[in-house]
Sequence to fold (368 residues):
Amino acid sequence: MPASRTTLRRSLAAAAALPLLIGALASCGYGSQAKNDEKKVAAEGEKLSADTVRLGYFPNLTHATALVGDQEGIIQKELGGTQLKVSTFNAGPSEIEALNADSIDIGFIGPSPAINGYTKSKGKNLRIVSGSASGGVKLVVNPDRIKSLDDVKGKKIATPQLGNTQDVAFLNWISEKGWKVDAQSGKGDVSVLRTDNKVTPDAYKSGSIDGAWVPEPTASKLVSEGGKVLLDESTLWPEKKFVITNIIVSQKFLSEHPDVVEAVLRGTVKTNEWINANQAKAKESANAKLEELTGKPLGAKVLDGAWPSIQFINDPLAATLQAQADHAVKAGLLKQPDLAGIYDLKPLNKVLKTAGQPEVADAGLGVK
Fold:
């Protein structure tokens, strides 16, 4: 009996000490407990007009505003008691399908799928409400096979997908060179091979392609395999800026929950501000989120090569969206679209004005 009482006293003492130990560990930031608690506290704030907002983005450095805003809890903090639910996608068309199917409310996406989604729905499914990033696209080649831009003629160059943003840009560049390529088949003076970014580095290593016009970090992965950057797409645009990532929202969600959309935009604006003020930390944060989402972080060489070529900005660079649409029309991939009303920048400009930042323009393509 005495032994039993002693054991009982020891068990009770241990149980009493356990919360103190857990609290001490959490205060030191060990494990994921601290981060989870921070998100919980943020979520216990005042709820907005929706219980949840469903956000879609790609596990890609050109979507680093989403990666960092999610990883650091910046977007969730602005949402208060409205929960942020995240889904990731590997291609623009699948994200547009999710938006159309009411599986997500807001998404980070490239200009070409945004244009296609808007025009196919006759302007009824989405609005672009902000920019997110510019740049981060390069033509990387095998330096043993291609020494100059003129050497690209007759070679096999990969793009991520038929009609995607980089595919359209490459086809337009080919046209500007005076070369001919059938847009659908990719056959002509240059062989355009539509290849998933995941397998492009292996295709390069095997020698089945001579180069690729691709976004980061795929471009820097090719460089790490011995490739050479022959052209940075930003050099083809005024002020070296062109939209690579927009933020879109379903028109239904924007109409029903404008306060939630505005909160998300406060989060993205603050995230971009934090990224630009803390480049090293932001790079690490984005890579940590990539590791969580994909199971593998980017190597230091790839990350350091990719990061500086991407600009994180709130301006959607609307004039460059129109130019990209014109390029797709010229390539025969798109009928002349009516993009009037594709933008609704009023919520963003409200956020920017409150933050003391300059408002942005919609190039005459905004909601009247």
